[in-house]
Amino acid sequence: KPGKMCTDIGISKSILTGLKNGTKKNIQTDTAQKIADYFGVSVDRVLGSEQKEKSPAPEGVELTEDQIRAIEKIKKLPPEELAKKMAALEAVLDM
Fold it and tell me: 52 vs 6, 11, 64, CA distance in Å?
């Protein structure tokens, strides 16, 4: 319950009500941190500024879990390492 959360973390119920109905647009950093800690999420998530992960595939294209994992690993490679891996992958796929 929202009221219990407010009591548990020591914030006013009016803060939560104001955020919910849009009359309150900002909250103190420490309040946002208390809410984030309570739910075990980032402050960015509480504030709604956490960026949503974009799909690595064009719209309408479904990727397998293996393909998604491969893309995520590729995205983390430094450019010189990516060039080496791509050359090796192309050699294997062209066999």
Answer: 27, 28, 20
The share of the chain scoring above pLDDT 90, in percent, equals: 0
41 — pLDDT class (breaks 50, 70, 90): confident
For 24, 38, 41, 81, the CA distances from 33, given in Å and listed in that order, are 17, 8, 9, 38
The DSSP letter of residue 38 is H
- CA 54 and chain centroid, separation: 10
What integer pLDDT is reported at residue 49 of this predicted model? 67
| Residue 73 identity (one-letter amino acid) | K
Q: pTM of whole model > 0.85?
A: no
Neighbour tally for 70: CB within 10 Å: 14
Q: Are 31 and 15 in contact (CB under 8 A)?
A: yes
Distance of alpha carbon 46 from alpha carbon 6, whole angstroms: 14
Backbone angles phi, psi at 24, to 5 degrees: -115, 125
